[in-house]
Amino acid sequence: MFSVVEQGGVQFKIAEGDTISVPLMDIEPGNEVDLEKVLLVSDDGGVRIGTPIVDGVSVKANVVKHFKDDKVLVIKRKRRKDYRRKNGHRQQYTELKITSISA
To answer: Which of 56, 61, 54, 72 is nearest to 18 (CA)?
Structure first.
């Protein structure tokens, strides 16, 4: 059984026991979260696709930790003008472990 959920504007294909990294959520590590935007569910009964959300399906996950991703360098430069700017960015993520998909 697998499912497609949306969290933070990003879609994830998940199954029970998977670990995913979603954009930062304001929930303490160790707590349980319910992912409400279930877009697709596939099980023994077939595939159900939502319009846009599948009704009666819930996905539960535990918050494992919060972390920052690797640094991404943003460099701006204009030739012959002595213009150079270097900027770094580290995106924050929350790691979730999927515990159950109930259809």
So the answer is: 61
